[in-house]
Amino acid sequence: MTGIVALEAALQPAVAGLDAIVPLANLGGLTELADPTTLLDIFLNAISKFGVYVTIAAGLSLIFGLMGVLNFAHGSLTMIGAYLGGALMLTFVSEATSDVVTIAFFFLALALVFAIVTAFGAVIEIGLIRPIYDRPPLFQILLTFGLVLVFEEVVRIVLEIQDIQPNVDWTEAAGTRPDVLGFHEILGVTTRGIYQFEAVVGILVVAATWWFLTRTSYGLHIRAGSEDAEMAQALGIDVRRSFTVVFGVGAGLAALAGVMLMWDPRYGASVGLGVETLLIAFVVVIVGGLGSFKGTVVAAAIVAVVDALASWMLVNDVVTFSGLPELVIFLVLVGVLVVRPQGLFGVEEVGGH
Amino acid sequence: MAISPDSSVPADEGASAATADSDAAAERDATAESDAGGPLGTVRSIVADHVVHIAVIVLFAIYPLAYTQMVALPVIGEELALLIPRTRTMVAVLYFGLFAMSFDFISGYTGYLSFGHSMFYGIGGYLVVLSMNGKVPFLGGIDSLLVLVLVGGSLAIVAALIVGAVSFRLSGVYFAMVTLGFAEVAHVFIRNWDYVSSNPRDGASLGNNPVSVGIPGWGPLPEWNVDIGRIIGSEFPNFLGTGFDLSTSDVSFYAVGVVVLVSYFAMQRIIHSPYGKVMIAIRENEERARAVGYNTFYYKMGAFAMSAFFAAVAGGLLAGFNRSVAPENTFDLFVTADALLAAIIGGFGTLAGALFGVLFQNTLEEFLSTEDGLAQYLRETLSESTLDTFVGDGIDLLLNGRAGLYVGIVFILFVLYVPEGILGTLRSRLGGKVARKLPERIQRYRSGGGGGGS
Question: In terms of residue numbers, what domain contains B129?
């Protein structure tokens, strides 16, 4: 008996050491997954994340699909959108404004920010990216990368003038979120109204982009251009003008996502929002496949479900490794590219990459 | 009538087709000369081939001493101290320059953008710190940086072979993204792995262990084995009786410099070997390289592994000098991005250019840094009444720690107007490698001026 105790005592440090090196999983907790409330919890989390991810990635997907340019400044535009949206909401609403009016103003802010940043994106395309189309695609990517540095510092300068802390979430802006989007209960699961709101906005963005791509003449040009730019040009389509429109709309969508995230307690308006959203947008677009908006939507759904599952496992101590949700997002990217190098819905050899 | 040196330039450039032939002829001449002159001739031809290399090395070698002299100058000393980087910054230029060169080695020469390169830098850095803290099995008690750097490099090679086996099935943007994916997996992991330290988000640091560069137990003097580090490290007041004081930064500068120099020449040698020619062929036209019969996959894997090795060496030097590593200065995407910026500004696919890009970047960062930067200098120099106006606020807003803004603007201007970078533009102006063409030019000017016309 004492022998066993001694053996246990001897093994204790070894087990503890192993525990420290490899974050061990408590897989027994997985049985809870059969519980319907658990499933609903995960589902609510997943649709909210889907809304966020698809909104973040939609603009990047459009630009990448037509122009083959991975816009590194996409995340920075989201960050700019968050601050612009916050500033607009703070001027529109006060403590006394009712919830319905606040939400109406939110959609007004969304539309305004979208318009402003779309125009801004078009200017960038004409002024900076158009002159280097004849160079290898690397240079356009590099250029947008330079923009990241400039945007971030300019935002910091403006924030310093306005006396806003750049590195932490802008709480005054988040404070304009109406009470109806706060905590409430659905079938025994506590959740926040903002999460369902984001799912709705995400679906609206998907619907609007879908309409833009399939029902407008620009959409037709874009689809033709990403299929075969030379042929489209030969048929008399001004591909260059569609580039400007697409870059503008893509930038506008990025900023629109920012306005939404400004209200989200998981994100919030801060300078760090740019990198945070950029990496997710990359993963979603690449997993979905070049030039396929459908792919982007499906990829956003997959990443959202995987992320929601991982977050649930972390919160419920199935896994103790706190980086898990972030980690699995990138594992999805690596995994999909290993199995299908062109992404889920990508067509090989499109865009000359 | 004397032929002016200028008139020969267009003729030379016009005959660019003949350049290859004349290069070959020059090499034949050099061989002939070395045969005739014996060992002395060989030395002479090596020196002739590397005049620019030697000049750059000499400039770097005298830098710490020159810096001390220059900032001590009576009138302009203070201004010079503001403009030129401290020796401490130069150490960072050296090891980060090595990382940027290793990035250029794979990205600039094969055309495969390694966006996850920071992973290898991080592996090298973390290996040094973890093993010196006794946290790596079998490596406890080794305090020689060179040994640890070699181990880290080997680990990075293994990592590169795993990442490469998956990633080289892809190309273009997809290759960049999948390597970024791997690096982010590593980044998230290291940021949350509590084995590293009690607070893995802030990284890990060394206790009081000295970090020595040199081969343990070898060398005629104890000075052959020096400790590097910003504060804790070897220093030599009145070095070898020459009257020069070598501070800890100076010693680190030379120790790190030697490792970087050896690494640079190793990479440069590979680039100039037949292997390197295949790397360039892959960049120019991979299908054709394959059609000629090269198994490009193995060449890419080899190049990737070698570049990962040198990236890890650079990471080990960073860890040794800073005595700490953190996720945001090793595994972070923006570390790779800094190397990319440096490579583009210096000249993509020029190897040495990346080092000059880093030099430019770090000089600007120090110039605009919060401590002892331009902002503080202006604050001390300008009068109180000027500072009370908008000028004072403007200095704080636009100059204090705003290097990112200006680096970004310069970078955009380079992408738009100087796509070949500093060294690349210099090369196309001279019509060849600076190391080869500059001495030729100088020779021609000299004979043109001295010898008169023929």
Answer: 102-335
